[in-house]
Amino acid sequence: MLYPIRAVAKQTGISIDTLRAWEKRYQVVAPQRDERGRLYTEADVQRLSLLNEAVEKGHAIGRVAPLSNEELQALIAVPEVPKTLANEFAQLPTIRAAGPVVASRPAPRAVMEAIEHLDYAVAERELALLAAVLPPRELVHSVALPLMRQVGEAWHEGRLGIAQEHMTSALLRNVLGALIPLHRRAAPTSKLLFATPSGEHHEFGILVSAMLAAGVGLGVVYLGANLPGDEIVAAAQKTAPQAVVLGFVGANGGIGLAELQKAAHKLPAQIELWVGGAQTAAVAQEVRKVRALVIEDFHMLEQHLVRLGARF
Fold first, then answer.
1. Residues 195-205 pLDDT 10s
2. Do 247 and 173 fall within a single domain?
3. Looking at the 3D structure of the chain, how many domains does it have?
4. 219, 188 in Cβ contact below 8 A?
5. Res. 232 pLDDT band, cuts 50 70 90
6. What SS3 class is residue 94?
7. Are residues 211 and 162 in the same domain?
8. Euclidean distance between CA atoms 17 and 5, whole angstroms
9. Each residue's pLDDT tens digit, 2-12
10. 233 vs 223, 240, 304, CA distance in Å?
11. In terms of domains, do 33 and 99 share one?
């Protein structure tokens, strides 16, 4: 059976204008058409109902539109944050920017187990619960950093594969995507651009750094991993950040270093260049030769975020 748009609007609770906007911008469904207009199938109505329910629970349509019906159902089924979980994290000590924070807590067991089993829906649900309970900085230091460390160690030891590492990156990107609109200021004091140069495929460091910046309302332009130096420079010229933050481990020979040098040479002088993640002192020394500020740890990163207007 096919339904006209007015009937679908009534069944789903979505206004006609919103339906049209979702279809045009996000391609949420692809209705058939006849001389009278749009016609929707039962499957279309079901999907639109799921999307509307997710949006009513506070999720942005841009984030949920790519999800499958099964993923939407799992998202909708996420319960209110359990009091036991809220109480557990309420016991965390207050974190101040005056001193370093040591991520001594292990990554949440449920998240790690879901990643090990490549169960994206469960891992995403658990992270969403934690993000609902914790302030952004505690989320980074108590969840994201331990998760990054444990997944990285397990990957190096061969206990996890590339698939789990990539899934963890995708999960953290989703958390970042939720933090940016939630903490966005109308006129942020500063903007930062995050990327890694060509040859640098690991993005955990810049993901967590971007989460810290987004959580305190600084502007964030997140480009991801493995970008040519010219592309980084072009993006910086277009977005005019106060600083470009690059992740550079330096484990892949001279490719990444050459792209880093290119970016440093071509970046406008008024844009600062911060580089974190250097694996060895020798790599850090090479980075310092290209007018870059070497970010040695996340405490140092926070100090410079404060300099640009962040308040933790």
1. 999 888 888 88
2. no
3. 3
4. yes
5. very high
6. coil
7. no
8. 10
9. 999 999 999 99
10. 12, 10, 21
11. no
